[in-house]
Amino acid sequence: xxxxxxxxxxxxxxxxxxxxxxxxxxxxxxxxxxxxxxxxxxxxxxxxxxxxxxxxxxxxxxxxxxxxxxxxxxxxxxxxxxxxxxxxxxxxxxxxxxxxxxxxxxxxxxxxxxxxxxxxxxxxxxxxxxxxxxxxxxxxxxxxxxxxxxxxxxxxxxxxxxxxxxxxxxxxxxxxxxxxxxxxxxxxxxxxxxxxxxxxxxxxxxxxxxxxxxxxxxxxxxxxxxxxxxxxxxxxxxxxxxxxxxxxxxxxxxxxxxxxxxxxxxxxxxxxxxxxxxxxxxxxxxxxxxxxxxxxxxxxxxxxxxxxxxxxxxxxxxxxxxxxxxxxxxxxxxxxxxxxxxxxxxxxxxxxxxxxxxxxxxxxxxxxxxxxxxxxxxxxxxxxxxxxxxxx
Amino acid sequence: xxxxxxxxxxxxxxxxxxxxxxxxxxxxxxxxxxxxxxxxxxxxxxxxxxxxxxxxxxxxxxxxxxxxxxxxxxxxxxxxxxxxxxxxxxxxxxxxxxxxxxxxxxxxxxxxxxxxxxxxxxxxxxxxxxxxxxxxxxxxxxxxxxxxxxxxxxxxxxxxxxxxxxxxxxxxxxxxxxxxxxxxxxxxxxxxxxxxxxxxxxxxxxxxxxxxxxxxxxxxxxxxxxxxxxxxxxxxxxxxxxxxxxxxxxxxxxxxxxxxxxxxxxxxxxxxxxxxxxxxxxxxxxxxxxxxxxxxxxxxxxxxxxxxxxxxxxxxxxxxxxxxxxxxxxxxxxxxxxxxxxxxxxxxxxxxxxxxxxxxxxxxxxxxxxxxxxxxxxxxxxxxxxxxxxxx
Lengths: 392, 392
Prior knowledge:
Two copies of one chain form a homodimer.
Chain A: H1 14-23, E1 33-37, E2 44-51, E3 57-63, E4 66-69, E5 72-75, H2 79-94, E6 102-106, E7 111-115, E8 121-122, H3 123-128, H4 136-150, H5 158-167, H6 171-183, H7 199-206, H8 209-224, E9 228-230, E10 239-241, E11 246-248, E12 255-257, H9 260-276, H10 280-306, H11 318-343, H12 349-352, H13 357-377, H14 384-389
Antiparallel strand pairs in A: 1-2, 2-3, 3-7, 4-5, 6-7, 8-10, 9-12, 10-11
Helix pairs in contact in A: 4-10, 9-10, 9-11, 9-13, 11-13
Domain Aminoglycoside phosphotransferase (chains A, B): 35-272
Binding site for substrate (chains A, B): 233, 340
GO molecular function (chains A, B): ATP binding; S-methyl-5-thioribose kinase activity
């Protein structure tokens, strides 16, 4: 009789990560492997294991049972590793070119072993340095069109979709978004972080009841509308980019939510770049990315829609309705992201790394004003051109 | 060592139902019990077990592994018994007076043992005979206000709510609604059933693309909007009524969906009564029920809302927004129910029992026209009075 050994969670080390890779036959037994931990250690360990002989390398990502934020540490479900591995696998099956391959995952150890993307750079870092990623927005538009359409009711049998809804139930990570994106920045909450010079703008936001009413509606949508499997945290820090290649990583916030949420988060993070770039051609480059993201999303989604066999997708006006709703949601979520990244707990390097204080504060004020306008005016901003007009 | 005996599903009989009740100590061992099967045998067995000594009685409801509809039989998940027992228990905890007590449930046997309500009558049957139920609409309004509010994000911690969403995932029974309420009646589907005299009206519906676009939007809402735990099948056949008592039964279709769905189904089933009643005071009685249902729902929901601790519920206009959205949804779902009960697979006795063919056809045409109008005009029908105006 075989003895079943129960595996329990333990943190990997350089040594045990190498052993694991060998045990799983991810390398030839004879290969000499090197391993380094390359994560930021806040939420996960990230080990890169490479063979000097073959040049082959892999990434082992292990979730830590806590999150470190501003020096504090709070417990955080390891189940996010299961969700991340499953989301990567599912998203890769829908947009193969744009998602890293998963070689192995283990729920007990909370690990995902995947393709090494070290030849690419995190898009946020690259954009901040002025790198040009010609295919970034086309690729993200395609990723969104494919992953959002094919996980929606327009594509899936309802049994399959409802199975995914259960599988990707993600209460703990959703709660982070519910608090940090939709609630805390709009109230005088301890988690907020902003410089003194923004005090007046921030107090105005907190007192802005019509704004808070619209944020309440957007939060309601985030809480209740299970339209498609979202990435859930699609900012430019969750994207590896290169000259001809884009890969979307870190979908541990994945869950069934409103289609516009991923779009809004990505566009807001492009907008931070548009705001801090003063030279016209450099700003222009970002504006084109914004435009392309929506346009490619829309055309990809529409193309798949046209191939759908669902009887209602044949009804004139239905696709337009879905796109129009998703666009308004996108603009609203984008507004929330602009505000929370400026005054909430989790900031962006794009703004915070601006050394000149006067400029930095000005950029932040621009983001706050634009965020507010997008939330309030989302049903009157009817096209991506309307949005671009506000950025010039 | 105790031997664990695995229970497997088997159909209860008169004898085994009595044994089970005794084994569970629901009666004194000495009592003489009688048992009769009182269900319609389409989806469930319903045994009524009574003691001649104490007068005590109970109901054992057992789900059958198939559904019989118009002579055909198709497999149907036994999991619905789990959902029904859980929904009854949860709804009773929120509206104790209006839901029968569950004494015991068993997932393996797919049974729910509950309070016997034989002293009451199914509301549809009673209304068809002209019975007067003074508290029916007030009670249902209260049931809806309490069960919908307290299972929503406005009342629950998000972890609890997301737990319920998973627990009440109900793909198979939702699919029945998706098909029979939102799809089949609007297409030339084999499941439809209507009399020859309605042929022209029905063909007009099938050709009515603006109508089908609005139904698509309502179906989208049913598929994606997890606002609250719905009863899911709240017609007058799911309600036991008496002069001073109302009990809501049969929540096997329970799942997280849009708040307006239960409201719409109940109101539509009242409307069938309003349509077939020609004498003014008798019609008037139903119109008051319609008005009271919404008014009591609205005041109950609002009262609970005012006690909520969620920061956003304090924002002026948010409750009004939620009620306005729910009202428009209610009117739309009501329209779908009016149409599907007239020409779809599952009819209502209210209409079908009208002997005079000319009148019956006229009533059905009225229901189809009203259903269509409600679906198309749901955003312009702004109050329950606007709806009543269409029924006079």
